[in-house]
Amino acid sequence: MRIKSKIKDYYDYVAYRYGGGDPKIMYKRGKIENDIDVSKYNLEKLPYTPTKLKNDYSFSWLGCCGKKYLLVRFRKSGSFFDAWSKWQILNEKKHALLCEVLKKRFNDFYMIGQAKRDGVNSFYDYLGSESKAILKISRDIKSPVFLINAHGVDNTVPNLSELGMPALICAEQMYQNIAHYMSNDMSLSPDKNPPVEVSDRYKIEQHGFDKRVSFRHRLNQ
Question: Is the pLDDT of residue 173 over 90?
Fold first, then answer.
């Protein structure tokens, strides 16, 4: 995989170990041109946030190689209304208190049912789990990595290093993940497409039979 981008990310240097990367796989990491409506993809809902805590943090989704990662940002104490920290991937070590709150909600019977209705089966689904909606969005916008903000898909490919991805996936593995995803999952190949349904009449005619004559019941002699 070759990377074309003005901004560097933490896994870029791995391409040089492979002689610059496979030229058949070109990752143009820059502006995302799209006008999709995210609400039509049945994307898993973000965690419920009590009203009294909405001013403390907010959530969003990161799509990466067909998986969803929960992003969180915090309001800077003593700052103005719109002053927030940068988005970060939810990390059990870095965000221990918040993770405990989310885990407790999944232990509550009502919240378990609510979470399943929202498409999330456990707390660990927030830490990077397969998502059909993320895969579909990725294919439509033609980008393996993207961020979903309040208005939909952000028009710029996010920097995974700034989001804290190196603490979860090493550079070599991330490079291979993106290369494999772009060549195998993001682009639909004819071999992976579902078989086309053919009518019985067409199948009969393909084999040289005439439906009106060949399958007529034989008359009694």
Answer: yes
For residue 45, being part of any structural domain is answered with yes
Whether the full predicted model's pTM is greater than 0.85, yes or no, is no
Boundaries of domain holding 111? 31-185
Query: Mind spelling out the 3-state secondary structure of the chain?
Result: CEEECCCCCCCCCHHHHCCCCCCCCEEECCECCCCCCHHHHCCCCCCCCCHHHCCCEEEEEEEECCEEEEEEEEECCCCCCCCECCCEECCCCCCHHHHHHHHHHHHCHHHHHHHHHCCCCCHHHHEEEECHHHHHHHHHHCCCEEEEECCEECCECCCHHHHCHHHCCCHHHHHHHHHHHHHHHCCCCCCCCCCCCCCHHHHHHHCCCCCCCCCCCCCCC
Q: Is residue 137 part of a domain?
A: yes
Domains identified in the chain, total number: 1
Span 113-161, pLDDT tens digits: 666 677 788 889 999 999 999 999 999 999 999 999 888 999 999 999 9
